[in-house]
Amino acid sequence: MPPIVPPYASQFKHLAMSFPSENVLHVELKRFWREYGTAFDRIADDPTVRVVVLSSALEKAFSAGVDLSDLHALPQHTDPGRRALLTRAHLLSFQNAIGAPARIPQPVIAAVHGVAFGLALDLLSVVDVRWAASDAAFSIKEVDVGLAADTGTLARVPKLVGNASLLGELALSARTFGAEEARSSLGFVSRVVQGSREEVVRAAIVEFAEVVARKSPVAVVGTKRFITHALDHSVEEALEYQATWAAFALQSKDLRESAAAAKRKQKISYDNLGESARNKAKL
Are residues 276 and 156 in the same domain? Predict the structure, then answer.
């Protein structure tokens, strides 16, 4: 039986999309960044998607980093000031595309395998959950090519991990570190799955995405936004934001139906959010 694909999947040449199970969208990366942001913006508007699993279509790697040949595509101008402004706009566009998973209401889990260098860390720093195959090898590689990581890693990862000294060591040396160090020492990934691409993707779908997809989408969207908001705000600001969100979320029928189902010890199937999901997520 052929995989079920969303109707908009054909718009993207360098990304593969399919539904491995109900309400779970699997996005597989190839060469992609120009389509990446647009794809996630489109996913945000799809009420049938409750969880996204992000992986690589490559057999041996998640991503080896940005193609240095892309540097030749930077804006050109004879005047240095104008060239700098054009380059800045180009870099901001790149950052915006890479940051797309943070903008969508649905949670995104990354299933990482093989080589995950440079740009891979930028991508991974944006998603909500990171699981790695035991063969995953990470590197904040930019200093080895004369750059500082400027597309998300050094903006987001310091807020996500509990070992700033180790992060500094890894970013300054560009040394390769494995899945277990990324989990136990850095705290960047939350689970290591024995195996490679097939094993980590299967685990991410079955053990996480399918579980989340069965829960109230109102509760799931709220949970993602609460965590994201709290990373950049004080406790007092976060509580005020959560009270505002809860003012409408408490009126959802999901709450009443969940309580009734729990009392009867029955399972419940929730409705999709509908076309207004993205607007609710931006409250």
Answer: no
Name the residue with higher pLDDT: 276 or 2. Answer: 2
Assigned domain for 3 exists = no
Please state, in angstroms and rounded to a whole number, the distance separating the CA atoms of residues 96 and 68: 19
Check: CB of residue 134 under 8 Å from CB of residue 179.
Answer: yes
Q: How far is it, in rounded angstroms, from Cα 96 to Cα 241? A: 24
Q: Residue 244: its pLDDT value, please?
A: 94
> Is there a single domain that holds both residue 204 and residue 229?
no
pLDDT in tens, 108-126: 999 999 999 999 999 999 9
Quote the percentage of the chain above a pLDDT of 90: 68
Q: How many CB atoms lie within 10 A of CB 126?
A: 20
Q: What does the pLDDT look like over 157-213, one tens digit per residue?
A: 999 998 999 999 999 999 999 999 999 999 999 999 999 999 999 999 999 999 999
- Whether 2 is covered by a domain: the verdict is no
Do residues 100 and 37 make contact, with C-beta atoms less than 8 angstroms apart? yes
For residue 159, the enclosing domain spans 9-213
